[in-house]
């Protein structure tokens, strides 16, 4: 009986983890979106600071921007995870995933990017 209970619990956790993999593409898209914004703003900032700023200062500004992005993304990322370690259900995680996709236009962004890549490939083939 004890072995069956352990197996049932482990199976439940494995299934929750497997089901949560559906949110992985959204996590990747949201991270990539935030990283593009971070890099663009970092370049603007470093450009305003001039070319003669020390490497140590550049690194500090880069670290600061990474830290801000990571802290901002922590909450949304937690709400996309559903590994059975908390009371969050898969349906909640999927609802959060769809909400983030809508809020940040993540699905649209990828399809627009794909269209641009296809257009460039077609142009190069001519």
Give me the count of strands.
Answer: 0
Q: Major beta sheet, specifics?
A: none
Calculate Rg over CA atoms: 21 Å
In terms of quaternary structure, the protein is single chain
Could you tell me the strand content as a percent range?
under 5%
Tell me roughly what share of residues is in helical segments: over 70%
Globally, the shape reads extended
Overall pLDDT: 82
Low-confidence stretches: none
Question: What structural class do the secondary elements suggest?
Answer: mainly alpha
The count of helical stretches stands at 5
Question: What is the CA–CA distance across the termini?
Answer: 69 Å
Q: What's the SSE pattern?
A: HHHHH
Which SSEs are present, and which pair or pack?
Blueprint: H1 2-20, H2 24-49, H3 55-80, H4 90-103, H5 106-125
Helix pairs in contact: 2-3
Task: Explain the overall architecture.
With 126 residues, the chain is mostly helical. 83% of the residues lie in helices and 0% in strands. The longest helix has 26 residues, at 24-49. It is extended. The model has no long low-confidence stretch (mean pLDDT 82).
